[in-house]
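>> received
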Amino acid sequence: MTWLITANYIAVVLLLLCVCVQDVTSRLIANKLVIAVGVAACTLSLLRGQYPNLILFAAVLIPGFILCMANIIGGGDIKLMSALALLYTSSQFPHFLFLTALSGGAVALVCLLFFFKTTKQHGVPYGVAISLAFIFSYSIN
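>> returned
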């Protein structure tokens, strides 16, 4: 059974890699990819003997929608964070948020140093930061 959990985790990471490539190249995250991440997250959660955290999912999606409407953060980023929130418990999620902010700062710094003009025009590809935070914070043990 652990090989199935590991395989599913690798599938989530590969989907997040696709998210990163798409976010860097077009500054968009396709709904199909977010849905695939959400399905893989639910599967991984169930394989680990936990239920997907629908309360945390809604707690991220609803305020995120408001932030999206205010043009503070992109809709794809919010949907991606909501999909990944399905995997976390309420006590684990603050670590994920902290690492998202930390990696977001690092991604923004790299973008501003090496791709200043593109970053000023199109913004920071925050899907990369969210994906990195997941990889660093989620443990399959």
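>> Residues 2-137 form one domain.
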